[in-house]
Amino acid sequence: MQTSNTILKLVYKREFFDISVMKIGARLVTTINADGTVVFKEYKPGSRKVESVYNGKCTVAAFRLLCYRIEECISTASRQDFYVDDCSEELKIFHQFGRVQTMDRGLGNGETDIGRIMHDFFEKDVIEEKSDD
């Protein structure tokens, strides 16, 4: 049974700042759908043109566990860490009926935060599909 809080997809965006030219450099956008499909897109620095696309997959159970961990982190968040580094990351959560939440990687509590949850998911649960190229 789906509720109004059902998560349909997650979009995790990472942008890297290129200090040598003082501009946004590489950008990586990862879309994770409820059916387990994962799409990684790399963009050229300073452009909206996609440089490369990689496909991956995860189990539906892994997606649901990821959503549960994110919702738990948001509901128990007691701080917002502001990182001072060359990278910015944000998570967009697309719910059923058009609701969208945007979270920064530093939102969390003493035990975890959004960035750590996402990085753990990419390391443990996502399998990159081989291309036929």
Could you characterize what this model shows?
- The protein has 133 residues and is an alpha+beta fold.
- It has helices at residues 60-75, 114-124, and strands at residues 7-18, 23-33, 37-43, 50-57, 79-80, 87-95, 100-104, 107-108, 127-128.
- Helix content is 20%, strand content 44%.
- It has a seven-stranded antiparallel beta sheet with strand order 7-6-1-2-3-4-9, covered by helices on one side. It has a two-stranded antiparallel ribbon with strand order 5-8.
- The longest helix has 16 residues, at 60-75.
- The chain starts with 6 loop residues before the first strand and ends in a 5-residue tail after the last strand.
Topology, please?
Elements: E1 7-18, E2 23-33, E3 37-43, E4 50-57, H1 60-75, E5 79-80, E6 87-95, E7 100-104, E8 107-108, H2 114-124, E9 127-128
Antiparallel strand pairs: 1-2, 1-6, 2-3, 3-4, 4-9, 5-8, 6-7
Could you name the key traits of this structure?
20% helix; alpha+beta; 2 helices; seven-stranded antiparallel sheet; two-stranded antiparallel sheet; globular; 133 residues
The termini sit apart by 40 Å
Structural class: alpha+beta
What strand line-up does the widest sheet have? 7-6-1-2-3-4-9
Q: Approximately how much helix is present in the residues?
A: 10-25%
Low-confidence stretches: none
Major sheet size, sense and barrel closure: 7 strands, antiparallel
- Over the alpha carbons, how many angstroms does the gyration radius reach? 15 Å
Shape: globular
> Number of helical segments?
2
Q: Write the element-wise H/E pattern from the N-terminal end onward.
A: EEEEHEEEEHE
Mean pLDDT: 84
Number-wise, the strands total 9
What is the beta-strand fraction?
A: 35-45%
Based on the structure, what is the oligomeric state of the protein chains?
single chain
